[in-house]
């Protein structure tokens, strides 16, 4: 207000303005209940101190009330410690004032003298105030003095009875001048749940209609007879037919409309050309003022409108001149006395028989009425069951009658029920509709006994007259008729008729907990009388309010949970507003996020008459907001562009205006091409100085008749992705061009590895205040050796939020939103968290509950108090790694700290903060287990990698089988290189010129997998030039043979994958050459020679001989390894024995829609290059097949071992990062070189 609205309202009122439920004596009357006055007995006191007492004040006229104050009775021990505040315009139909829309009770006094004042968060406009004591001094009684503060309230009111309306027409100019802002506002109150409040007619047949439908306001935007396709109808508000004032505002600002009902606002995006505010006339209360009945309008408004404003101009007086029908300018309110059944002990007892009533509730079940029938026929129950009205008559446990009617009666609307019994016919009618009427003809009279019980039964063990085997009713009732007469509920309240318990008479206390909805991200809200529930199905979010995303925020996170290449849902901002998106994750050494678009094929262009430019628009699988977040979060992004040309210039270098340009997310034309830098007007060849014509900076700018091309990577993230491309030089007769824009690719996650190391307990990082009033989620990773410490803390005046390590085995999440400190704890069951490994913490607090999760330990969830404070109000800085209070700070590392989906940049802040260092090394202790199959974990600054050098597997986690499919004629030969200089005689060297060295071994570990349908077959052969060999054979019957004896196994030549493992620890054996499948050397065992001549068809995979992986060397490192490949050999997935995703719990999809065709000389169309994934699968297949072959048939043929003496070998250790390193590595612990002998293993 520009004026003060805090004057006292009660102190000057006469005693006649006060009423109360009762008074202890004349000197304890309500007229003495004025703050700081000692008249009478010093305040009001009732006869009895119970929850049915009340004190009422009549302010004389509608007044704006901004604060209330209470005081105990003077000179006594009587005071009220908590109370409810009610208000009304008429002294009937009271409404409870609620703080934060949830808190009903006010805290009162703690003694008789002090004054406690409450400033109302929202002012109340009412004539009557009523205060209901809830608690009082247990050593005294109810005693009260009262004051209210505010100022006079003036308004213009119009009353409509369902047939009239008011019209305001813009005159003399029917087309008002367009302004930057237009608004319509009013207040209304009604008992009817439907009716038209506002209708406008504007230019070009545009109209706006505001309609009340089933207690909810609908805003319709129309143009002619066609509804605007999006945002045509917007609903807001609920339970607006409660006969209380509700404020409505419709405001146009630029290109959107703000629609406000009470304290809820919804923004509607409307194109400027379809704005509904270029209007000619407005009608209030109906549409008949315009002379036509609109289809959208069901009926005219029945109720009162107040302060009708158009652009802050009160149009009541102007519209009075054009009224139609019955419109008056005072608010005539009907008398309606509802009653609220709020608790488990609520019931209403009345005498009488046949009845009619109305009810409204959110509950699916509850007792409406019960009574005993005369002549001991039985008991009748009328109750809600699964949202339907059901009537049953029971006697001695038997159901004599069962009737059901109605449907969906828990929608919060008023529903009527009529129960009549005449001439042996029983009838139940719901909402006076024939379709909801049920009849029964019992063989006994249905006549009530002495009493009817509504909602429940008295809580008395001796009560034989009322029994309730069902749920109690929670909701409101009104218009109760017994014996065809309306029941005066005010007399019931005064205990003049009937009996009741725990009722709120003369008010309906129903609350719509789903309006506004606390369910986030599209979760569907349902409710009961006391709570609400969010259905998060198909939203991608979970939790009590659908706040937390079920998906990870990047491919990097999925990778470090052990997932492999595939399609994953990515939620870039976690619990933020950006929706999850299905994205392809190519998990090689770098983790690539690949975002496809609709135009990945090579598009060819030829000269066409009348066309000077070609425009191509790229629609990505992620929207603009998702793309922006992905690119910002990534460490690197790139997009490859191709331009093929013949007499079609690209950038028109060096001095001309570009013919072709592209536009990225900044919406600015970019005149550089792939491989160049922004603003250069160059292509990659121009930057490198190798264009085909040195006078130009692009190959295509040479304008030659021969085909040329310019291609390269766009890597400047601020301009990516390419949204559209304009190709210009295609109008000349000889011009031809082709272009292609590849998918957007990004790798790295700056948020996931963003970390800080706190090396002092007094060190901390500070950030702006955390705003999580209704929902707050906090997630991070930490590692420490300290026993305790505060991870983060943010304080308010009274509220706070904190996450801490309270002990080595417990994490505590604590906060206060006004209901007192609240703690959620997770204990790890004896497992220490200060083990210097990464541990993940996730805490969430919302209006329903608080939860805490630590790693995979069982999480803890605690419900929020019912009808408590819900807003978290903080005002200080957020402290990370320390605290503003005197609690112990944190020693260790914190990583990937996110609050409500937003990552805090710990590293950047740590660079300028003493006692805190950016980054945190040491990831293998936590993630090393992801490196499989004897792989070695290697530390990196941001993460780790797996070294597969000593493993027969490949892939980012060394989990991918290296496999190949062999055909007859295909062979792989691996020759051990000389690790030291060896002195031999000439004759020995001539026997095997291909042998570079020999190794003396004391044992072997041989393993491989195989898959074949061929038998007999030679699977593996290892020999020396001394005719010593080891052979693995598959017999004709598919049985494995060892030492020429068949093993009793099933047929292994069945096309299935089999794994073989051979281990020998015995006398030393000498190894020189390993052959696979086909042997091209001299003398062989006759049986082996015969099988060798047949060749082998099948799959070999994961082949390993001690530390040597010959098949992997042949497939992945053929140019740097001592291998000889004969015949066709290509990597295959034939040896894969497990699905690509080793963590099936994660959400992943196969790359079924990323296939495409390859054109000669053109880029792959609609395809994603995932060579590493393909190679991994092929390798896996090959290795599996080889191992299986050994398992099928192993035959050791031992011949005489020949030993000889030689010089002591000279050990040479190769460089670790050499590509040959895996094949030069020293033998394992079982492969020890002997000093005096070498043996050949055959």
Automatic annotation (TrEMBL):
Entry keyword annotation includes Signal: yes
InterPro entries to which the protein is assigned, alphabetical: ConA-like_dom_sf, EGF, FA58C, Fibrinogen-like_C, Fibrinogen_a/b/g_C_dom, Galactose-bd-like_sf, Laminin_G, Neurexin-related_CASP
Sequence ranges assigned to domain Laminin G in this UniProt record: 157-331, 328-508, 754-920, 983-1134
Every F5/8 type C domain range: 5-151
Cysteines paired by S-S bonds: 304-331, 893-920
Topology of this chain in the membrane: Single-pass type I membrane protein
Transmembrane segments: 1173-1198
Primary localisation category: membrane
GO cellular component terms attached to this protein's record: membrane
Keywords: Disulfide bond, EGF-like domain, Membrane, Repeat, Signal, Transmembrane, Transmembrane helix
Pfam families: F5_F8_type_C, Laminin_G_2
Residue stretches making up the EGF-like domain: 510-547, 921-959
Biased composition (Polar residues): 1226-1235
Subcellular location: Membrane
Domain spans labelled Fibrinogen C-terminal: 546-597
Family statement: Belongs to the neurexin family.
PANTHER family linked to this entry: CONTACTIN-ASSOCIATED PROTEIN-LIKE 4, PIKACHURIN-LIKE PROTEIN
Protein's name in the database: Contactin-associated protein-like 4
Organism: Oncorhynchus kisutch
